[in-house]
Amino acid sequence: MSTKNEYDCAKCPGYCCSYPHIEVTREDISGLAKHFGLDYKTAETRFTKYDKDEKARGLRHRKNEHFGSACGFFDAEKRRCTVYEVRPEACRDYPYGKSCGYYQFLSWERKHQENKTWIALTNK
Ligand code: SF4
Ligand code: SF4
After folding, report:
1. What residue owns the CA closest to ligand 2's atom 8?
2. 102 CA to middle of ligand 1, Å?
């Protein structure tokens, strides 16, 4: 059985970073605090917010022209994570297997648009 991933993040505009609730653990916040030379509380307030519906803290978002909003650590120009070495566990684990639903959606759109660089939007 093949163990090769069926997705390629290098060819994707970074849909997963636009997911509305990207949960963070205390360890994630500690890692971000250390990375930026901040104390825990400052990092928690600056980078995360409590989501009442999810009953958990998640990464703060900022506006993104393609996605509506995306994680505050997402570089919209380069389309990559600016804190890759200390990204939260949820980011490291995603997409939890060999395939990625976002990438399947993107591949389907590119095939049907007959355009290998097509960027399908998620906020329309
Ligand atoms: S949405 Fe999937 S393919 Fe795109 S960057 Fe995230 S994990 Fe990679
Ligand atoms: S921390 Fe990095 S990988 Fe995680 S959502 Fe933000 S930009 Fe994406």
Report:
1. 17
2. 6
- State the amino acid at position 36 in one-letter form: F
Could you give the 3-state DSSP secondary structure of residue 20? coil
> How many Cβ atoms are within 10 Å of 110's Cβ, its own excluded?
16
Residue 40 has which token pair? Answer: 């825990």
Let me know the angle formed at the C-alpha of 56 by 52 and 60, rounded to the nearest 5 degrees.
85
SS3 label, residue 107: helix
Which runs of E-coded beta strand occur in 1-87? Answer: 48-51, 56-59, 61-64, 68-71, 74-75, 80-81
Query: What pLDDT score was predicted for residue 6?
Result: 93
pTM: 0.90
Region 92-117 average pLDDT: 90
- Does the beta carbon of 67 lie inside 6 Å of ligand 1? no
Task: Show me where the domains of the chain are located.
Answer: 18-96
Q: At 11, is the secondary structure helix, strand, or coil?
A: helix
